[in-house]
Amino acid sequence: MNPNSLIAKTATELGRDLESGACKAEEIAAAYLERIEQVDGKVHAFLHRDDENFLAQARASDERRAKGETLGPLDGVPVCLKDVISVEGQPLTAASRILENYVSPYDATVTRKLKEAGAVIGGRLNLDEFAMGSSTENSAYGPTRNPWDLERVPGGSSGGSSAAVAAREAPLTLGSDTGGSIRQPASLCGVVGMKPTYGMVSRYGLAAFASSLDQIGPFSQTVEDAALLLETISGHDPLDSTSYPTEVPSYSRALREDTSPCTLGLPKEFFGEGMDDEVRQAVEKAIDFFKTEGYEIVEVSLPTTDLSVPVYYVVATAEASSNLARYDGIRYTSRSERAENAVDVYAKSRGEGFGEEVKRRCILGAYGLSSGYYDAYYLRAQKTRTLIRQDFDRAFEKVDAILTPTSPTPAFKFGEKSEDPISMYLSDAYTISTNLAGLPGISVPCGFTEAGLPIGLQLISKAFEESHLLAVAHAYDREHQFGRRAPELG
Ligand code: GLN
């Protein structure tokens, strides 16, 4: 099959073609490697590739299939991972200098599940250092560029994961979302991105940023593909104590069966000031679509919305300062060559190994947790976090899902926000409360600006209602398929 037609396909289509014998996994892998060679010099989604290993996995899939031992719909389909998810024997840098020479000694649970499903695991994808940021400008290895406009950011922190799908360098990728890091880059790159309910996907083998907020989730061209990837990686894992013991429903089946219109809530606090006009228009058009399909649209209120960014930056930095204490120059990280005594080893290794934003977060977090300030910052933020969750509980008494824009603006230019941390932090104003409340959220492409930049809408549901959330998202996506459009990229 022609390589250009292979890379245009969704994972679901590739799975069907493999099944029918229309193509081989090795052909698919080779087509993607060719594409990456063509475009990644411009996009810079990848930090590391092991092409031989990638092709070998594809050949192994073809051999299984030839013997009639196929492992499922993803057998032979490439999936690339954000460089915070462990793959045994592969590097994991978290886009930080401090992990420059680190190689994972084991597989993350999501990696193991992908391997068990026969997926072909590809290269390591760029991000903001330790997933802290919204643009990939904080990567120690240079930023990723938005495939729709190379002068603009792809969003972040999972910018490599969103750009790789948009640029057709991978049909599926995984990212992690602590405050919006899957949904915001998905929106800015015009692809689907989903953060599952906290506890639905194991965090074992994910380099931790803020453990009470982090979740791994899928990127894809369509909601149908996101459902397929999510059902593959979800499920209880005894290796993650916060993983929830529940059965994983077939999300793919839910897309076909759960089709009756429901009630969608529009939080009035999200539709106020600060939203770009073209974003507003595209989201309003999507709301009109739902209305004509028979969905009931009602206004809801989430009064604590404006507290979510400040609460997040107390909670997330507190957890980060504790999680990142392990990068000490003693164990698996690089050690400063200038260290002259034990304290120096810690201070200089961390001083040289971490970038500015990571240092800022560690200092902020340690401050918020320190005796004398704990009550004023950390404790207060935790109490407010409960109020944020209760706002959602009340809203879900009236509605089945909540609809908002994903990001207040389309992709911004490099440098536009990087000098001003607060304006960068505000680009997650619509996504952060979902993490604080532990709820699932999905970003679905809903149009383009006049200048050709993608726009995304966000749907949020009750905890563990992924099936329903995906079904609502699919009802829109099936009819619009904006994520199937690909940028030119010369
Ligand atoms: N942009 C947010 C931050 O900088 C969220 C990051 C994320 O979800 N990992 O913390």
Structure description:
The protein is α/β, with parallel strands linked by helices. Helix content is 41%, strand content 12%. The protein contains 17 helices and 11 strands. An 11-stranded mixed β-sheet has the order 1-3-2-4-6-5-10-11-9-7-8, sandwiched between helices. Helix 3 packs antiparallel against helix 4, helix 9 crosses helix 17 and helix 11 crosses helix 13. The longest helix has 24 residues. The mean pLDDT is 96. It binds glutamine.
User: Uncertain segments of ≥5 residues (pLDDT<50)?
Assistant: none
Q: Give me the number of helical elements.
A: 17
Strand order of the largest sheet: 1-3-2-4-6-5-10-11-9-7-8
Number of strands: 11
Mean pLDDT: 96
CATH topology of the largest domain: Amidase signature (AS) enzymes
Distance between the termini: 22 Å
Q: Roughly what percent helix?
A: 40-55%
- Following the backbone from N to C, one meets helices and strands in this order, namely HHHEHEHEHEHEEHHEHEHHHHEHHEEH
